[in-house]
């Protein structure tokens, strides 16, 4: 029994100690963003984790002034730690972040507080913010995550409505039953081409 307890406590400590900022891919992407921060070519930022990172946004949106600032595995704290590389030419940002926080055991209160700091950073720079709903997870991965996804989205939508910010709810398209539909994913988390096409069509109206 003692051994089981020790192993459990050890795993909990490791879970608490992990942060995306230590991940090599995060570090490499962040270093590129810092190197490119003086570019004045881009007007729109797509900001998020792997679900954003994997999108070919300039092609999907048929707009060469769109930049991809997604990092696979990223969290709200990871985003906060890289907001010093926002290009001065950016006029609007589409944010989707939070699912990795939830899957790593973070509470919605902490995720929401970080989200507010992210939004404030952009608002302080007079950059128009679009909050995109955190997507529900598919059947094989959802465990107890989707109730937290729903809670986070409700709080974000309420904040958006109270602060004249556009909230783009993508879940009625991809997860009308609060579970990511199999037709849009191969791993119950990330999206396929059909999903990205629908996503792009949904946000084109804001360009």
Task: Please provide a written account of the structure.
There is one protein chain. By secondary structure, the protein is an alpha/beta fold. Helices cover 46% and strands 11% of the residues. It contains 10 helices and 5 strands; from the N terminus they run ααβααβαβααβαβαα. The chain has helices at 2-17, 24-35, 50-53, 57-60, 76-80, 99-103, 108-124, 145-162, 171-174, 193-203, and strands at 44-48, 66-70, 92-96, 128-132, 166-168. A 5-stranded parallel β-sheet has the order 2-1-3-4-5. Strand 4 (128-132), helix 8 and strand 5 form a beta-alpha-beta unit. Helix 7 (108-124) packs parallel to helix 8 (145-162). The model has no long low-confidence stretch (mean pLDDT 93).
Oligomer: single chain
Q: How many beta-strand elements? A: 5
Residues in helix, %: 40-55%
Major beta-sheet overview: 5 strands, parallel
Mean pLDDT: 93
Q: So what's the overall shape? A: globular
Output the number of helix runs: 10
Rg, rounded, reads 17 Å
Structural class: alpha/beta
Lay out the secondary structure.
Elements: H1 2-17, H2 24-35, E1 44-48, H3 50-53, H4 57-60, E2 66-70, H5 76-80, E3 92-96, H6 99-103, H7 108-124, E4 128-132, H8 145-162, E5 166-168, H9 171-174, H10 193-203
Parallel strand pairs: 1-2, 1-3, 3-4, 4-5
